[in-house]
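Data availability (excerpt). The following record was deposited with the supplementary files.
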Amino acid sequence: MSRCKTSIRRGQPNPVYKETFIFQVALFQLSDVTLLISIYNRRSMKRKEMVGWISMGQSSSGEEEQSHWQEMKDSQGTQVCRWHTLLES
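Predicted structure:
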């Protein structure tokens, strides 16, 4: 299990994150992996509010996410970018 965080964008109502995260997963394990992406808004120093989430892989949260996962598997190392609609927490 791995975990990554984006950098913090303070005072931006619509921040843009152009960050790449790389997770090392053996090819034979790709069918057993689920990538969970959770988006949080930090209201204060201690309180975090989940905005939404999606999952891709074995337990994908929808058809678009499953299609994106399959495209990433088939891309052979080429970057694949897509927009996704978050599910409510």
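Summary of structural features: The chain is about 15% helix and 20% strand.
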